[in-house]
Each structure stands twice: as structure tokens, then as C-alpha cells.
Amino acid sequence: MSDDTGTTGDATDRVRAHVFVSGRVQGVFYRANTRDAARERGVDGWVRNLDDGRVEAVFEGSRDAVEELVEWCHTGSPSALVEDVAVEHGEPDGEEGFTIRR
């Protein structure tokens, strides 16, 4: 009996959250803290600043880890002042790793 390469079962258990965070969230290490928080939870995806002052992120992983990270976004980095977190759920796209996009 040989194991499959990769993670069997995880793909069907994965969820995706597309998040938009508004408030004082740029210039306060929000992206770096998001990356660190995602990696600690084993969540894949990316985060970036938007021209309108918001931060946009995509999280893919287990339901519990993604939901925990979305909750984390309501506070974010210690210097952030989060006003709103809007979340859109969808089908995972197969994100791997977690990066900061510029």
C-alpha cells in the first residue's frame, strides 16, 4: 500500500475567503503580520495593499484555520485600526504558500 503524493482529502476540505479590510491598515505592518498569522495557521494565499487604502487578502486552508484568520483580521497588526472586514467565500483556487503582493 503506497501513499499518494501530496495531501489526500485536504483538497476537498479546503475553503477560500477573499477578504477586504478597511481602516488604518496601511503603513502599520498589516500585510507582514497577516502573512505571519497565515503561516502560523498553515493557511495559503496572499495579501496586498489597494490604492483606496484597504488591504485585500485571499486565504485558503482548512475551514477552522481560515475562519480563525478572518477573525484575526478584525484586529490585525498591533498598530492597525480596523473599521471593517468584508468577506466573500468561494471555491479554492489551489493557492500554495503565503505571499505579500505589491
UniProtKB/TrEMBL annotation:
Tell me what organism the protein belongs to. Halobaculum saliterrae
Keywords, ordered alphabetically: Hydrolase
**Record's protein name:** acylphosphatase
Lineage here is:
Archaea, Methanobacteriati, Methanobacteriota, Stenosarchaea group, Halobacteria
- What InterPro entries does the annotation carry? Acylphosphatase (IPR020456), Acylphosphatase-like_dom (IPR001792), Acylphosphatase-like_dom_sf (IPR036046), Acylphosphatase_CS (IPR017968)
Which Pfam families does the entry mention? Acylphosphatase
Residues of the active site? 31, 49
Superkingdom of the organism of origin: Archaea
In this protein, which residues make up the domain named Acylphosphatase-like? 16-102
Recorded catalytic activity of this chain's protein: an acyl phosphate + H2O = a carboxylate + phosphate + H(+)
Cross-referenced Gene3D superfamilies, in alphabetical order? 3.30.70.100
